[in-house]
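Worked example 3 (structure in, sequence out).
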């Protein structure tokens, strides 16, 4: 299996597991959106909290030039931890939610 297909499978497995976690309050649900054509992965929260509509992004990942770019990470322990546990090296994970000048000070890929 090539690297791109491997990363696609890893991301889909991790995000599917997050999407299965039920909300214990309100009328909220998780929705996983996958675009294999553009290598874009979104995990959203959708629903109602009393009379307020909730529609927010929990996680947004992209595969760009063979690296996994974490655009948004609203998980408790950090999605990078899950990617590392699945075998993705730090050199292939970009913490895109940090400004470019900060990324060089992390142990992860700069771009």
């Amino acid at each position: 299996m090539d690297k791109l297909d491997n990363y696609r499978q890893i991301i889909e497995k991790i995000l599917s597991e997050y999407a299965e976690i039920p909300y214990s309050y309100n009328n909220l649900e998780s929705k996983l959106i996958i675009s294999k054509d553009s290598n874009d992965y979104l995990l959203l929260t959708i629903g109602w909290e009393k009379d307020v509509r909730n529609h927010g992004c929990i996680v947004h990942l992209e595969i760009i030039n063979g690296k996994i770019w974490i655009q948004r990470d609203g998980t408790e322990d950090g999605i990078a931890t899950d990617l590392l546990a699945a075998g993705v090296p730090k050199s292939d994970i970009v913490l895109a939610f940090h400004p470019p000048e900060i990324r060089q000070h992390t142990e992860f890929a700069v771009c």
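Notes: The chain has one domain: 3-103. The chain has a mean pLDDT of 94.
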